[in-house]
């Protein structure tokens, strides 16, 4: 059968694109699993002398990776084991719902890289779909391999949630959302049909809210760094109290790095006002700190130990960030919008920032274990409500400061 040369070449390019996209997805999964699996395997060989079934460590690594993407895992300790370690109540099922967001962040960044690389091929849409399907299939296989009566991950969450994180990275990194794509091109044409002032309101609200949320998390990162540096002695003391050897210390450090994005989000919740909890009945906020027994995690040594005399100053962070963002964006839109439309923009900035901050607060919170640890992290709805109020008011003040009074020579006219 005669096949045109162009068709044969196109089929070969399509097959190469499929293989390349699948390899990129498998590479992202392999890197994420290897981070907990390598130290656990070394621990299995060096500390336990290969005496334990290696599949225990494999399931543990997969469970850690799945938890890192938000998949729930139901843990049931053997009654004898639970009693021997003084956790008799731990023999009842406990569902771990708090995500170690460091793994999700890694998957997102690697997904962006994969999206960029797939976008360089001649079949972008096909390659992206192949990469996404491969990642979803790999997540399903990994979740199935980790099913065990002692620790059982949610099958649908283990398959779907990591794939959604990877899909977001692919969309950011690829050129599927470019103007040349039929779907995005249609969306752009639809948006171009809106009135000019509506496009300005929507675009400024989304852009301003995203920048304001990013600014808040930047401040939270600086505060987290300062807290770790100033509490370094307490953190080292907690490390020494764990009595771990080198490999155990490495494993603990990797776990804390995976927890670090959660801590930054908790710090942002602290700046917004409601704060967060480390166990039922506890509270860490700018105005007061009430801590009961906390897990022996060295990173938690950076938590404040009492009330701050000037803790309320932290509440200025979202106000200042929201004001500065609006003040920068204000001059660009003041000549296009009425004063009441500027108020809508301020509200839109506040709502957009609140959705981002509240969504990440929701992802960072949940159950981390039995007993008091069923309640760890911020209350997302309360954090979102506070953030919406603070950013909206601050953005409104910033837009008013940027909008000059009506003058014939500045081009601003009240409509």
Automatic annotation (TrEMBL):
Keyword Lipid metabolism in record: no
A UniProt-annotated Pfam family: DUF6350
InterPro entries: DUF6350
Keywords: Membrane, Transmembrane, Transmembrane helix
Residues spanning the membrane: 20-44, 89-112, 124-147, 159-179, 209-229, 249-272, 284-303, 309-330, 342-363, 383-403
Protein name, entry field: Uncharacterized protein
Organism of this sequence: Salinibacterium amurskyense
